[in-house]
Fold this sequence. Notes:
The complex is a heterodimer.
Chain A lengths: L4 E3 L2 E4 L5 E6 L6 E7 L6 E7 L2 E5 L7 E4 L6 E5 L8 E8 L5 E2 L3 E5 L1
Parallel strand pairs in A: 2-11
Antiparallel strand pairs in A: 1-3, 3-8, 4-5, 4-9, 5-6, 7-8, 9-10, 9-11
Chain B lengths: L2 E3 L3 E5 L4 E8 L6 E6 L6 E6 L3 E5 L2 E6 L4 E6 L8 E8 L6 E3 L3 E6 L1
Parallel strand pairs in B: 2-11
Antiparallel strand pairs in B: 1-3, 3-8, 4-5, 4-9, 6-7, 7-8, 9-10, 9-11
Amino acid sequence: DTGVSQNPRHKITKRGQNVTFRCDPISEHNRLYWYRQTLGQGPEFLTYFQNEAQLEKSRLLSDRFSAERPKGSFSTLEIQRTEQGDSAMYLCASSLGEGYTFGSGTRLTVV
Amino acid sequence: GQNIDQPTEMTATEGAIVQINCTYQTSGFNGLFWYQQHAGEAPTFLSYNVLDGLEEKGRFSSFLSRSKGYSYLLLKELQMKDSASYLCAVRVEGGFKTIFGAGTRLFVKA
């Protein structure tokens, strides 16, 4: 088991473009979470899945954000019509018990 | 609403002891976590408290008082590699959603 894997590590995109990030959790973990983190702040909750079911989505998330976890394995986070304010580190985490195991994140820069 | 407060920065000396405080006001409580995050890296899990009292794990200990909405992380025998941000996080009631504070940046000096 190599931990939580996120791809790509870095993404630079032009404003208005769509981007998609992928997260591969630890295989036996049934819960998967997406967070966003900006410099000097703690991770901000976006959404989480238990197996393939999306159980909660932050009210801060606009309709431009969508996440999926087909078959309860890997997950994707898509941002449509990106804005400069979307620039951040997008962190994926998975858990089976109490603590999270985070991936290394995808750093998104919108220019 | 959800509110987690912790100091923005702290400085301590190598070999010393430091205590990082955290107070929280959340919609329900189902456990408190501490994570360590080095600059440019992902957070890593340090400790979990769900009942009142002290949990010790090597050089790190974490304390919880649910009635006061208060926790602290105690780091002993500080090492230079302990320079990092320390994130206090609360799992809110009703699921597995966890809310994070902004973190405390700890600088360990020689």
